[in-house]
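Pipeline run #58 for the internal structure catalog. This entry was flagged by the ingest filter as a single-chain record with no existing model, so it goes straight to prediction. Upstream metadata was stripped on purpose; only the residue string is passed forward. Reviewer on rotation: M.T. Logging verbosity set to normal.
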Amino acid sequence: MIQRKQTLFLIELIFLGLSFLFVPCQTILTKTSATNIYLMPLVDFQSTTGHLAAIILNFIGLVLATFTIFSFKKRELQVKLCYAQLVLWLIIIAMILFCPFVVRIESILEIQVHYFVIAIGLFAVIAAYLAAHFIKKDIELLKSADRIR
């Protein structure tokens, strides 16, 4: 149901997860050039397991948000899935901050983190929390309507 507020927040989660595919997470500075690293498999450099895990977690987050939208008849499950997405996004943010995404070789001078991606991740955490909050409000509204009958 698109008219529900939590559905809009879950759609926002999907768009934020998709934006991770196109916004650079880190920049690798070498002696000759600067290369942007996205949450996609690398071609020029060798990926670390942290980078591959972040790619997989982003994909899981996209699938989970899509599944959460279409499980609107099971609201208790939706709340749990929203909190799972919140934790998933916190893990992805921590991985971007603390895990280098490429294997260090001597030609790499520095790996810089783009903090705009961290802001996108924080917006995703807030969206997941707000979706869970509004789903809980729906549950309370339905319970109060059942008491009236």
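catalog note: The mean pLDDT is 86.
catalog note: Strands lie at 26-30, 34-37, 108-113.
status: ready for reviewer M.T.
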